[in-house]
Amino acid sequence: MYSERASRLPDAVVWTNTPTGTGAGRVLPDGCMDLLWHDGRLLVAGPDTHAHLTEGSASSPWAGIRFHPGTAPALLGVPAHELRDRRLDLTDLWPAAEVRRLTARVNAAADPARGLEDLALRRAAETATPPDPVLRHVVAALDAGRPVAETADELGLSARQLHRRSLTAFGYGPKTLARILRLHRALSLARRGTPFAETATRTGYADQAHLSREVRDLTGLPLGELLAARG
């Protein structure tokens, strides 16, 4: 069972999940990064370019903080592209002694999700790095369907400068981020019952076939099967 709520940390969501059944889970790319707790360990999920399949036999609970696109690297102290398509222990990023201390604190909390959120809040206060307005603009523009070149011009950046900043913040270039954000706009419409052809038109795909190819490439499933699996 999955549930989520807004975090006390800006630009973040707290979630918990206890998998049911034996089938593998499928985590879709969303431009986000997560700080995770599982089986008494702290881990990090980097930004995905394709669906991440979870182990079908793991039924123990998970807790996580999902950071909105571009916000996690400052807190973690690592460029996003170094974590792309990876799941790793927090000890791979931070000193082992510090991670042991933080892990013990989260494990001692009555609610691991709350303990994880407290950890993120303390870390954010220590880094004291304000959100980059440029990154906010990039995400908002691309999520609105504006072209990458137009977005770069609005910010006074060259295509190369925007690509470099995007790698650090999001883990991949702006074109990949735009594809992922468009995917979620399309899935949101399709889940509400919008016909696939209309969904494609309204979210900027050339046609329904283009939408189908993108869904299969990014998620590994045909659109109808993906909606049924998550329904």
From TrEMBL:
Pfam families: DUF6597 (PF20240), HTH_18 (PF12833). Signal peptide: none annotated. Keywords: DNA-binding, Transcription, Transcription regulation. Residues 132-229 form the HTH araC/xylS-type domain. Transmembrane segments: none annotated. The keyword Transcription regulation applies. This is Helix-turn-helix transcriptional regulator. It comes from Streptomyces hirsutus. The lineage of its organism: Bacteria, Bacillati, Actinomycetota, Actinomycetes, Kitasatosporales.
